[in-house]
Specification:
The protein has two domains: about 110 residues, Probable inorganic polyphosphate/atp-NAD kinase, domain 1 (Rossmann fold, 3-Layer(aba) Sandwich); about 150 residues, Tumour Suppressor Smad4 (Sandwich), CATH 2.60.200. The chain has nine helices and 13 strands. Helices cover about 30% and strands about 35% of the residues. Helix 6 packs across helix 8. The chain is an alpha+beta fold and about 300 residues long. Strands 1, 2, 3, 4, 5, 6, 7, 8, 9, 10, 11, 12 and 13 form a 13-stranded mixed beta sheet that branches. It is elongated. Strand 8 and strand 9 form a beta hairpin.
Length: about 300
């Protein structure tokens, strides 16, 4: 029984989830002491992480969408705790969880608490940490502007629907990226800086990314002469992307660039991204695609 003590930090919208309630009771019956706290407003996740650590919880579970998972992971990464994190994906996209092979069923996801935690990296953008991916350009605008009502009806397809409906607004961003032995300057349609592999409801911008290599995967979609052809190729292939794998990269944009950090929008003219190696201990399935392997 020793050490089997966890706090579930749950997004308020999921408080009446009956499947989750049953899964929590089942985990308790298996010998876990699992307490539940519900978020209500901005800053609650950070406050509850601090309370859990002060109370001696050895495991924390983040339950909600990609934004909630990021908030909890960031709070734990900033304090450098030895407590471990388990993810309970309950959102629309669940991009990180799907790429990592984390089950979407609450009972199966909670069972990962019984799997040893692995040290993983976090990404850092300025003074903020992120778990999955930073996206820039048109893709991040689509993610930020996809309505909650549309996501309820269409699920992850809502992002594609929103993108198609805003096709006429598609504009390139002029940027410069600089990193170790890497330099790229020009106009881009989309940018992905991945600790994880996919964003925006399933778009695999960084398909080879892993979470324990101390590096960030960079994916740049340059703006071509023919936008329609670029979007067609984006959906069926990978040939248009410029790719790199770097410990850090700096981005400059004279007109500002829209960035989305796991669902959190921000705008900046200059921003430094870097990997924070082994910043968090995370419960992942055995054989998770996001873990690197020797050879």
């Amino acid at each position: 029984m020793q050490g089997r003590k966890a706090m579930l930090i749950l997004h308020g919208k999921q408080a009446m989830n009956e499947e989750l309630r049953s899964a929590v009771h089942d985990l308790r019956d298996s010998g876990w002491a699992l307490d539940v706290r519900v978020t209500w407003e901005a800053g609650d996740a950070q406050r509850l992480v601090a309370e859990a650590l002060a109370a001696g919880y050895t495991h924390i579970v983040a339950g909600g969408g990609d934004g909630t998972l990021r908030d909890v992971a960031e709070a734990m990464g900033l304090v450098g705790t030895e407590a471990s994190l388990a993810l309970l994906p309950l959102g629309t996209a669940n991009d990180f969880a799907k790429a990592a092979g984390i089950p979407l069923e609450p009972a199966t996801a909670l069972a990962l608490l019984n799997v040893p935690a692995q040290p993983i990296d976090l990404g850092q953008a300025g003074d903020q940490l992120f778990l999955n991916m930073a996206t820039g350009g048109f893709g991040s605008q689509v993610t930020a502007n996809t309505s909650e009502d549309l996501k309820k009806v269409l699920g992850a397809a809502a992002y594609l629907f929103t993108g198609l409906s805003r096709f006429s607004e598609l504009q390139a961003a002029s940027v410069e990226l600089q990193g170790p032995d890497f330099h790229w300057q020009g106009d881009l349609l989309a940018l992905g800086i991945g600790n994880g592999r996919q964003a925006g409801g399933g778009q695999a911008l960084c398909p080879e990314a892993v979470v324990n290599d101390g590096l960030l995967d960079i994916a740049i979609l340059p703006a071509p002469q023919e936008v329609v052809g670029a979007l067609r190729d984006l959906l069926v292939g990978d040939g248009l992307f410029v790719r790199a794998r770097l410990p850090w990269v700096e981005i400059k944009s004279s007109r500002g660039l829209d960035i989305n950090l796991d669902g959190e929008p921000l705008q900046a003219d200059n921003l430094r991204f870097q990997a924070r190696p082994a910043a968090l201990r995370l419960h992942l399935p055995a054989g998770s695609p996001l873990l690197s392997r020797p050879g």
